# Entry
Amino acid sequence: MLVKEYLSVGTFDEAIDDQFQLKRRGFVPRIMSCNFLMNHVTEHEKVDMALAIYGHLKMSGLNPNDYSSGILLKALYRKGNYEQARDVFREMVEVGVNPNAFNCSTYIEGLCSHKRSDSGYEALRAFRAAKWPIDTFAYTAVIHRFCSEMKLKEAMEVLFDMVNEGVAPDVYTYGALIHAYCKTRNLLQSLALHKDMVSNGIKTNCVILSSILQCMCEMGMVSQAVDQFKEFRDLGIFLDEVLYNIVVDALCKLEKLEEAVELLNEMQG
# Structure
């Protein structure tokens, strides 16, 4: 309880001291409490503290579990210690802790977030070959990184692999691909991906729709963008101010000022 109180007011050193004073008082800290503390300081960018907690944990005779290892991996990646993260993952396997989806995803996402898309994909395939659990988040992390680097052929290859392995893409998976194809003005591929997403029962969102409509406008397809907006609206899809503003601007370019004003009033109403 005291640990949570210390954390709530940002006194991290006191929280750590209180947690490990238990050992000196003859009590063994629970691994769940240590994990909670380690995750909390990591989320507040106190990476060195997280590493220190992990060290204390091992010195106290507690056996880190798969969640402990996942948090440590996250902390190491935030610090940029790629080699140490790899060593931790290897050590985890060697001591008999089977990596779970969280561990695998954290490892892969860490590589991808530091612009190592090829290494992230290589790790994903290696984990899959080892029959370790790979979830949607791991695949999406690789796809997102490839899209950020505009390696769209590779991103689509990961999507096909994902589907073939029976892992369902989500709105973020499709969103990264659609946004990237819109940036290259490949509208047909963007619309094809959007259609595939919706047909799989995944609800679209305003970010994706904004990318599509903005792409249309940039390609000179202003009338089509307005028509597409109206179609989305008639389907009952939630449309935010960004989408309205894109279409209002499009209507102004078409010199349909009355319709633009009407849409503005609709948005504000």
Summary: The first helix runs from residue 2 to 8. Residues 22 and 28 are 6 Å apart (CA to CA).
